[in-house]
């Protein structure tokens, strides 16, 4: 990890931006899977008994396609107008 940080720090500002954009693209293409939950919970420092709650994808929220309509609990549009 330290070698990667040193490498990134050695890049110019424009190159760092390009690298971050490249990484962002790959992260967006790699959705979380159920097997990721235990490790994510551990890293976040949450209790092991916590139950992850899936939320509608941002596009579904913006389009008003929340599970029980735009006013459903946890739906982004219920508290944040588009």
Determine the fraction of residues in helical runs and give it as a percent range.
Answer: 40-55%
Mean pLDDT: 75
SS-derived structural category: mainly alpha
Assign an overall shape. flat
The description of the largest β-sheet is: none
- Unreliable spans are 76-82
**What is the beta-strand fraction?**
under 5%
Strand-and-helix sequence, N→C? HHHHH
End-to-end distance, in Å?
39 Å
Radius of gyration: 18 Å
- Number of E-type strands: 0
Number of helices: 5
Question: What would your notes on this structure say?
Answer:
The protein is mainly α and 82 residues long. It has 5 helices and no strands. The C terminus is likely disordered.
Task: Map the helices and strands.
Blueprint (H helix, E strand, L loop, with lengths): L1 H9 L2 H17 L7 H8 L13 H5 L13 H4 L3
Quick overview of this protein structure:
By secondary structure, the chain is mainly α. The chain has helices at residues 2-10, 13-29, 37-44, 58-62, 76-79.
Defining key terms:
disordered C terminus; flat; mainly alpha
